[in-house]
Amino acid sequence: DQQVKQNSPSLSVQEGRISILNCDYTNSMFDYFLWYKKYPAEGPTFLISISSIKDKNEDGRFTVFLNKSAKHLSLHIVPSQPGDSAVYFCAASVRTGNQFYFGTGTSLTVIP
Amino acid sequence: GAVVSQHPSWVICKSGTSVKIECRSLDFQATTMFWYRQFPKQSLMLMATSNEGSKATYEQGVEKDKFLINHASLTLSTLTVTSAHPEDSSFYICSARGTPSLWEGLKLSYNEQFFGPGTRLTVL
Hints:
The complex is a heterodimer of chains A (112) and B (124).
Chain A: E1 4-5, E2 10-14, E3 19-25, E4 32-38, E5 45-51, E6 56-59, E7 62-67, E8 72-77, E9 86-93, E10 101-102, E11 106-111
Parallel strand pairs in A: 2-11
Antiparallel strand pairs in A: 1-3, 3-8, 4-5, 4-9, 6-7, 7-8, 9-10, 9-11
Chain B: E1 4-7, E2 10-13, E3 19-25, E4 32-38, E5 44-51, E6 57-58, E7 67-73, E8 76-81, E9 90-97, H1 100-105, E10 114-115, E11 119-123
Parallel strand pairs in B: 2-11
Antiparallel strand pairs in B: 1-3, 3-8, 4-5, 4-9, 5-6, 7-8, 9-10, 9-11
């Protein structure tokens, strides 16, 4: 049972425009959410996180929005750059727990 | 940030052989290490959690006799795929986490893990 879902397997965006990656979850116990970026043949690298006490967290060009009532989070990248092209995974966990539940990933391509 | 390495990065083996994958934390002591598996176009699935000096905790559906995990030191955990079969072919990724005080000093949430680059296992 996939508790974290990323329904768009791929996304193409023009350089300089906004990239919006979406993630939905089913478990209302999740209270900590993360986005990871992954290049081919490499492990995921941490990008940005948000706890359930917030609805927005911003770090440079990256902003994560959390809508707890809809069990939905999104990652906004503005402006998008070709180097942002990668697979983006969202992950969710219970803050006091060990296990991360990952989505299936969205492959972002930023077109120069 | 903290660095985690894996070795080998790619291994091809014959069916029935055993393969060992190493996960090392290079610049911090990892009290907890995690092993994940990723099938093509699928999410990372947690296989097991290991704490240094104790037995690993396996997730439901993961055979502990098939996937042997050893976390003998604070910088090294190994995953051995015993009697590998083609269905074990996958991308195996480890991650590591330091002590709560270390993570607090690095201003990290205790949930945060640093991932290795992964190991591609192909069983013929």
